[in-house]
Structure formats: C-alpha cells, structure tokens
Design a protein that fits this description.
Number of strands of chain A: 7
Order of helices and strands of chain B: HEEHHEEEHEEHEHEHEH
CATH topology of chain A: Rossmann fold
CATH architecture of chain A: 3-Layer(aba) Sandwich
Structural class of chain A: alpha/beta
Distance between the termini of chain A: 31 Å
Strand order of the largest sheet of chain A: 1-3-2-4-5-6-7
Radius of gyration of chain A: 18 Å
Number of strands of chain B: 10
Number of helices of chain A: 9
Largest sheet of chain B: 5 strands, antiparallel
Oligomer: heterodimer
Number of domains of chain A: 1
Strand content of chain B: 25-35%
CATH architecture of the largest domain in chain B: 2-Layer Sandwich
Number of helices of chain B: 8
Strand order of the largest sheet of chain B: 2-1-5-4-3
Shape of chain B: rod-shaped
Structural class of chain B: alpha/beta
Number of domains of chain B: 2
C-alpha cells in the first residue's frame, strides 16, 4: 500500500534533516512549482514533494472522479502520503488551493501536523455578499473553465491520442507534459470546479494546528480582504503580507518566500 | 521600440515576473483602446477578464517561468471599454540586463474562435448523444418479457457486469410485483462464459426473486457457465435448473 501511494502521487523525498516539510502544489501545475523554494530547506528538513492524483506525473489510472470532486479527496492524498512515509510533526506548506487542502487534512488528523504554512490561501473564491468578498463572481469561474477547455482542446483532444498512438516518439509526451501539468481536460476541469467553487469558511474554526498565512500584496486570486478574513477566522493563524505581488510568490519571488517561511519556523522554534 | 515592431500586424507586449508591463506596441494599444504608454507600469492582469487572471496565475505564468516559453495559448484580452478580444499568444522569457522579461505576441482569433466554439458544442452534443445511446442499450439489454400470465422471462445475453446485474435484478423485481409473477425464468443461453463475479450476481438475482415470492428457473446453462458455477461453488439451492428454455417453460406451465 505505502509503495503504491508513493508511486501514485509521484512522491519525491530529499534533504538531510529529520523534521518533515511537505510541499503541496496548487491547481494548474505540479511539484515543479516548488523548484525555486524547496532546495533552500534541504539542509534542515526532510523535504517531501508530490503530485496530486491527476496532476504532473501521478498515476492517472488511480484517478477516481468521485473522490476528487471535492477538496476532501485531495486532503486524503496528503494524509495517505504522510502515512506511507510514516511522518509525524509535519510542517505542511500548501500553495493556493492546497492551503485549504492542508486545512482539511489537519482537521481530519490534527496530531499529524505541527504547522501549516498557507501561501496565497482563500477559503472561498466566489463573492458572498454582503459579508464576504472572495474576488470573483460565479460567471468569472465559468469564464476560467471555458478558457481551460479552449486551451486543452488542442493538447488533450488532439495531441493526447497522437501521443498514445506513437509510443516510439516520447518527445510528443514531453511536449504534452510541458504544456500543462495535467493532460486530461476532465481531470483539470473537475479540479478547477473543486477549487474555485469550494466554500471552506465553515472549516476554519475547526483548525487546531497553528498556521502562517502568506498573503501577497497584490493578488487577484486571493486579495487582501481574503487574507484579512482568514486572519480573523483561522484560530492560531498569523497573517504575513508579502512584498511579492501576484499569486505565485514561490515562483515570482522565491527569495522572499523562502525568507518568510524560515523566519516563521525560527520564531516558532522549528528549524 | 523598433518602428516595424511598433506597427506590426500583431500585438506585442513585454512584462516582468511580477506582472508589470514594461512596454506594448501601438498595434496592441490600438486594439485595446489605450493611448501611447497607457499600459506601461500596469499589471498584465489588468488587460485580462477575471477568469483569465486565474488562468494567467495558474497556467500561463508557471508555464512560462518553468519552461521559458508558452505557445499557442488562448486568452481573452479586455479592452479599456470592457470588451473581450479572443487572442492566441506565444510567449518567451529573455534575460535582459540581469533580469527576466517575458515577451508576448498576440494574434486576434475571432473567426477561429467561433469555429472552435462550434467544435466544442458539437463535441458536447456528441457526448450527450453517446450517453443517451448507452442508457438505451442498457435498458434494451435487460428486457423482462411476460411469456404467459404469471411467468416472466429474463434473457441474459453477453456478459454480466455488476451494473447490468443490478439493473437486471431491479427490473425483474419490479416486474415480479407489477405483473404478479409466480415464475421467473432466467435464461443464460446467450452467455458464453461467466466469471466468479458474474456467477455471484446471477445467484444473487435468483435469491432476490425468491424473496419476492416467485420461483426462479435457470435455463440454458452451457458448458463454460456450468464449469464456473461449480468452481465458484455458487449456491443454486432453491433454484430450479432446466437444460433449455423450452424445458423451463414446460416446468412453469405444468
């Protein structure tokens, strides 16, 4: 079983430390997103990278549409990996949607985690007036789904069968993989729906694990209001507004991202 | 900017990793309704509709950063007047004076987009038609016939999957009640071979029929099916077994 999980989720373990630091990628990409950040922790931590089932180089045959139609299915991936590696005292770093995945995993098994580091988190992307501003209207999310469908039309509908029929030409598969991290449009669409139509506001109060909320200063996907909401509703959540702009500070501003995570862990006596 | 590039028949724009637009050519500014220099210093996201901003952050920028290029990407650009222009983008990263700059070339795609919208619509129509067809085949593949007052016939043809067995069982049970059946003949003449699971489904269907107060008659068992039933130790007690459908009918009518 544990072997299966490690293969299923394309789990990569590195680093010379003992304390586990698990990096979880967001929607739209895979563990490669962490390549500018994760190496900075290899001296002091046991660094764990993985791809959710359906993303990156995970085992697509393990994809269960039912399980992955909600973020809970993704949280189970995280727990499966922690169990397969026998981890405890986990510092979990989740980008974007993985922040809420980490929140859900920590609610299921609080004792597994020591800290949650949430990069660009949002408990709900769609506005819920008058109380809640998430930054998007439902139509905006439908616009995203439409855009994804149009972008996957070439790759998935046309290229994927070509790749399948030409196993002797691995460069085709490489091209496909480089284009988007998930090669199946139905998987990507379901992940997008699970992510952007989710409402995890009700889960926040159940969190028992202390957390760092890393909020970018100008992020269209998780605006400042959302960071502010989280800092008021997430027990033990400490808000830190980054100088970094955009939604992917680990890619656009890796130095600051690394520094802020290290400062937080040090201040919490973990390093 | 080079005069030729400035007025080239494509939109051109360069932005830094933090999304700040460094420069845009006159063609693009014209399309989007901005004055000269009107996009400089603004964020790339400011010319995208909200859904496009998510796509930029979750797909476009990671792709560009990780692979140094992104090709044939669909985006919609939003004009200053709030209209959306569908475009195809090619982008590449270049190191310039020690920092990275992302260069993008845009080509409007109005006609082609309409065409692809139609393809997508046709694709979902085809998917829906397929679904209807599958449902119909499923329905047709589990018929329950009244051969005579109180006697039902359930011919099983092909392979017996779990879904099909479940469907067959519920159709049979409903028919037993509605048609006040006393006998149900399950004829497996059309089943060439059977695995352990299918044997299990079959005996389960037979037990369910019995529980509803009808007698179950199994007919048409071929060599392969008989072998599986024996090997799997299928419990056929309480089920009348007859060699052929005709024998089964005679038994029920007797």
């Amino acid at each position: 079983m544990s072997e299966d999980v490690l293969k299923r989720n394309n789990v990569k373990v590195s680093g010379r430390g003992t304390r586990p630091l698990v990096f979880a990628h967001g929607f739209g990409c895979d563990q490669n997103m962490w390549r500018y950040v994760a190496p900075a922790f290899e001296d002091d931590f046991r660094v764990v990278l993985f791809d959710y089932v359906g993303s990156g180089k995970s085992d697509l045959s393990a994809y269960d549409p039912q399980r992955y139609s909600t973020l809970d299915g993704y949280a189970r991936d995280v727990l499966d990996i922690c169990h397969a590696l026998g981890l405890s005292d986990v510092v979990f770093v989740g980008h974007s949607v993985s922040s809420m995945v980490g929140v859900l995993a920590s609610i299921r098994e609080p004792r597994l985690f020591s800290r949650l580091i949430l990069v660009g988190p949002s408990p709900r992307y769609v506005n819920d007036p008058p109380e809640y501003f998430g930054g998007f209207e439902r139509e905006d999310i439908l616009g995203l789904l439409d855009l994804m469908e149009k972008n996957y039309i070439g790759w998935a509908s046309f290229l994927a069968p070509v790749v399948a029929k030409n196993p002797e030409r691995p460069e085709l598969a490489g091209e496909l993989e480089e284009s988007f991290c998930s090669t199946d449009p139905r998987v990507a669409r379901r992940f997008a729906e699970a992510t952007f139509l989710a409402d995890n506001r009700g889960d926040l109060s159940k969190v028992r694990v202390p957390s760092l909320i890393m909020q970018c200063s100008d992020d269209a996907i998780a605006p400042l209001e959302v960071g502010d909401y989280l800092s008021r509703h997430l027990p033990g959540g400490r808000l830190r507004v980054l100088e970094a702009t955009g939604h992917c500070p680990h890619m656009s501003h890796p130095e600051e991202t690394v520094r802020v995570i290290k400062e937080y862990l040090k201040s919490e006596g973990i390093s | 900017m080079d005069e030729l590039l400035n007025n080239a028949p494509c939109g051109f724009l360069a932005f830094a990793d933090d999304g700040t637009i460094r420069t845009a050519n006159a063609t693009l500014l014209g399309w989007l309704g901005y004055a000269e220099g009107g996009l400089c210093g603004r964020h790339f996201e400011s010319v995208l509709p909200p859904g496009g901003r998510i796509f930029y952050q979750t797909h476009f920028f990671p792709l560009l950063k990780l692979h140094g290029k992104a090709e044939e990407i669909y985006l919609s650009l939003r004009t200053s007047g709030g209209e959306d222009v569908p475009v195809l983008v090619n982008a590449a990263r270049r190191e310039r004076q020690g920092s990275a700059v992302n260069l993008c070339v845009f080509v409007p795609m109005r006609q082609r987009r309409r065409f692809e919208d139609e393809i997508l619509a046709a694709k979902s129509e085809a998917e829906e038609a397929n679904r209807v067809k599958d449902a119909l085949i499923e329905e047709l593949s589990t018929p329950v016939l009244t051969v005579r007052e109180g006697i039902l016939l359930g011919p099983v043809i092909g392979s017996l999957t779990r879904e099909r067995a479940d469907l067959m069982t519920s159709t049979l049970l409903r028919a037993v009640v509605e048609r006040r059946a006393r006998y149900v003949i399950l004829d497996v003449t059309g089943v060439r071979s059977m695995d352990a699971d299918a044997a299990h489904y079959l005996t389960r269907a037979a037990s369910a029929v019995r529980l509803m107060g009808a007698e179950c008659i199994l007919t048409g068992i071929g060599g392969n099916v008989a072998r599986t039933l024996v090997q799997t130790g299928a419990d056929l007690s309480g089920v009348e077994v007859r060699r052929t459908l005709a024998d089964g009918l005679n038994y029920a009518i007797r």
